[in-house]
Structure prediction request, 127 residues.
Amino acid sequence: MLYSTFIAAGLAGLRMLINMHQFKALVHHFDQRFMFLKLIPVGGNVLDLGCGDFSSTAKLLECRKDIKWHCVDVVRPEHVPSEVSFNVCDLETERLPYEDAFFDAVFAMHVVEHISDINHLACLCRQ
Prediction:
């Protein structure tokens, strides 16, 4: 708790010393989600497992418009961004509706804790 408070206070102080553009560049440099994006080849295919409401995907879409996002979740969200393809898939029991080795990377943010059969999820990622 103390450590995270220290980090938050440090970032707030840093924000006063540099302009917003520089601050966002620093966040993108150190945030693991943005580090993940750097590893994906130009025009790559990314699978977003358990995309939910696309809040994480939307931020990443802004940074790499060349990436093709393929999202799956157990329930179809009310709004699906036009930049992504979406499929309903139960990550507990079903196979992914894609060919094997189709994806360059798999993104799974806040999904592992909702899966009871982690071995099945690992098999999906390997697929």
Q: What stands out?
A: The two ends are 38 Å apart (CA to CA).
